[in-house]
Amino acid sequence: MTPESYIEQARAAKRTALDESAGKQLLAAYGIAVPKSVVVRGPEDVAAAFKDLKAPVVVKVVSPDILHKSDAGGVKVNLKSAAEVEAALRAMAAAPQIKAAKVEGYLIEEMAPAGQEIVVGGLRDPEFGPLIMVGLGGIFVEVLADVSFRICPITRVDAHEMLSELKGAAILKGARGRKPASLDAIVDVLMKVGGEKGLLMRHADDIKEADVNPLIVSESGAVAVDARFILS
Ligand code: ADP
Ligand code: MG
After folding, report:
1. What separation in Å is there between the alpha carbon of 213 and the centre of ligand 2?
2. CA gyration radius, the chain
3. What is the CB neighbour count within 10 angstroms for residue 14?
4. How far apart are the first and last CA of the chain?
5. Whose CA is nearest to atom 24 of ligand 1?
6. Which among 49, 58, 177, 208 could bridge 38 via Cys, Cβ 3.0 to 4.6 Å?
7. β-strands 116-125, 105-110: how paired?
8. Cα–Cα distance, 45 to 50 (Å, whole number)
């Protein structure tokens, strides 16, 4: 499939956003690492799906009605057997917000190697076109709004500057006993998203908003474990 086909499929289905699985396939088409995953319809499909994955795995609800899966009880990490996945999926299906939503399936995916969580985003400015954003994950983005923006396309120098501008930049280098995160791996992802031949430039007319939250960055690489693309 070409990168365009994920967007075309979503439009054909009258969707205003790509689901998580399609979003990750779009990222993968640009060379960004995503977890190996399978979408199942329900508990009866878990055993077969689990065989193709390396434990531990994560289960997530797939629903166009649920934007923040964790808040709805729709994410369970670190599951080590098919039985644990099945139990997690049943418990999820019974959560009030999920019961009330249109559920299209459940995504089962491998855990990313441990690392620091960062956020990479994109949006389309009516005047300037695609913008790219990077920030540190969790409270750094949500409470401290420690993010930096650039107009696309960016160069590798821009990408490095975006990271050094963050107030929490020292954290990436391994402050306070944390393992350092690979800056090169983050820069690579920023280029694949916001560079001249990157995803945001190439799909500038289709993508209104992009959100990779989080990208999990270890000492040696980066994996996009959540992806949301809103179509124009
Ligand atoms: P949402 O943002 O909709 O609540 P996410 O898909 O971002 O759901 O998952 C919530 C959190 O679970 C992530 O921020 C991350 O900490 C963890 N997580 C999700 N998927 C993985 C994965 N494949 N590997 C490791 N951790 C994961
Ligand atoms: Mg997320």
Report:
1. 4
2. 18
3. 6
4. 21
5. 111
6. 49
7. unpaired
8. 9
Residue labelled with tokens 């409470």: 143
pLDDT of residue 143: 67
Residue (of 225, 22, 224, 206) closest to 123 by Cα position: 206
Q: For residue 211, what are the contacts with CB-CB under 8 A and spacing of at least 6?
A: 119, 121, 122, 226, 227, 228, 229
The torsion angles phi and psi of 44, rounded to 5 degrees, stand at -65, -20
Fill in the DSSP letter of residue 176.
Answer: G
For the record, the structure tokens of 134 come out as 């990077």
DSSP β-bridge partners for residue 148: 134
Q: Which of 59, 75, 107 to mutate to test the pocket of ligand 1 (most atoms within 8 A of CB)?
A: 75
Phi-psi region of 168 (alpha: psi -120 to 50; beta: other; left: phi over 0): alpha
- Alpha carbons 113 and 153: distance in angstroms, whole number: 29
Q: What is the DSSP string of 108-149?
A: EEEPPPS-EEEEEEEEEETTTEEEEEEEESTHHHHTT--EEE
Residue of 129, 140, 203, 227 whose CA lies nearest to 175: 140
- pLDDT recorded at residue 175: 78
pLDDT at 57: 98
The protein residue with its alpha carbon nearest to ligand 1, atom 14, reads 214
Q: Whose structure tokens read 């540190």?
A: 136
Structure confidence at residue 178 (pLDDT): 81
Q: What is the mean pLDDT of each run of 10 residues along the chain (232 residues)?
A: 92 96 98 98 97 97 96 98 98 97 98 96 96 87 83 98 94 86 98 98 97 97 98 96
CB atoms within 10 A of CB 55: 14
